[in-house]
Each structure stands twice: as C-alpha cells, then as structure tokens.
Amino acid sequence: MQSNRVKYIIGIARKRRLERSISGYLELAKRWSLNGTFEFSLFRSFLYAAGTWKHKRRVIGKTEYTQSGPNPRFITTNLEDEDAEKLYREVYCARGDMESRIKDQQRDLFADRTSCHHWWPNQWRLLLSALTWVLFEYLRDHLHNTKLAKASVATLRNRLINIAAVVIKNTRRLRFRLPAAMPDRETFCALVSRLKPT
To answer: Which residues are registered as beta bridge partners of 42?
Structure first.
C-alpha cells in the first residue's frame, strides 16, 4: 500500500493491549462523564504493531464513557497530518453515513426489487428508485438546520409525506389544512415555503 501511495482508515478490534494504551484517557472520560456529562469522548493517537504486522502503524483510540459503561473504539490509518478527532469523526464515521444511505436505497426505496425475469422491468424499477432518491436528497437539502436534516428516507416519508391533510385548491392558490396534533408542523411549513417557486 505504501509503495502505491494508497491512503486508508480502517476500524480494528478491541484488544487488551490497545485498551491499556488509552487507560488513562478512559479514566478521565469516566470521571468527567460521571459528573453528569454522559458520552464524553477523548481521542489519543499512538503507534502500535499487532503480532502479524511488519511495522508499527498509527492507531487512533476513542475513549468514550456512556451510561452503559466504557466504550473504547480503535481505528488505524496512514493519514499522518490530520487531527485524531477530526479523522475519527469526519472521515471514519462518514462511512457509517454512507452505509445508512445504501440501506435507505435498498430497504426504503426498494432498489433491491429486481426479481422480474426480464431486464427492462428491473431497469425501470431501479430508475424509479434512483429518481425517488434524488427527490429525497433535494428535500434533505432544504431541511438544513432542522431536526430532520440527517433523517433517513423512512423517517422523512413518515413525518413529512404520509400525513393526513385537507388540500384546498382554487385557480390562484393551493392550501394545506394540517391537523393540530401534527408533530412536525413547523418543519413541514418551513419546507413548503422553501420549495415554492420564487
């Protein structure tokens, strides 16, 4: 990998030797978490070599103490210049978000429904799934600074689309009469105002 200049960031399993390297940080996180600030995290970067590795590599340990107890996590990378916390939160955790988006596509937008014996119907289904994905991404773009900014497709569909409303249409305007008990009424109204043509 080094000779080809390939950059990587990979999660590695918890081991006692790794946990000993961050034990002081874990105690500190525990102390601060028990004072009322739960899920407090600290990050430590150090060099480590497992028994089968040819040389030492950079490992980033995340020391977190939650209500369930200690939750140390470890990643290894050959990215040297970046801050440990930034690498963990912004680079490594981003892959989890990507995996969630793939699940959205398969589970909530039915991209895996390609069971037809003929090619064109399957292609058509995938095309409709992709189009729906683009529409939901467009909705997400207009939901920034709201609690639904990073919501899954299923959540957006259940909270903003599958809702009971009376639609009143005349020649000049379209009005929605929403139920008084709608939990996301303000978010829905803000989204509609952002989507309307200027």
So the answer is: 63
Q: pLDDT digit string (tens) for 9-61?
A: 888 988 888 888 888 877 777 777 765 556 677 888 888 888 888 888 899 99
- Map residue 109 onto helix, strand or coil: coil
pLDDT tens column, 114-124: 888 999 999 99
CA 92 to chain centre: 11
Buried b (16+ CB within 10 A) or exposed e, 92-103: beeeeeeeeeee
H/E stretch holding 26 = helix 23-34
Residue type, 93: C
With tokens 């259940």, the residue in question is 158
pLDDT tens-digit readout, 44-57: 888 888 888 888 88
b/e burial code for range 116-136 (CB count within 10 A of at least 16 → b): eeeeeeeeebbeebeebbeeb
How far, in Å, CA of 9 to CA of 60, rounded? 10
What letter represents residue 25's amino acid? Y
Distance (Å, whole) CA 94 – CA 6: 19
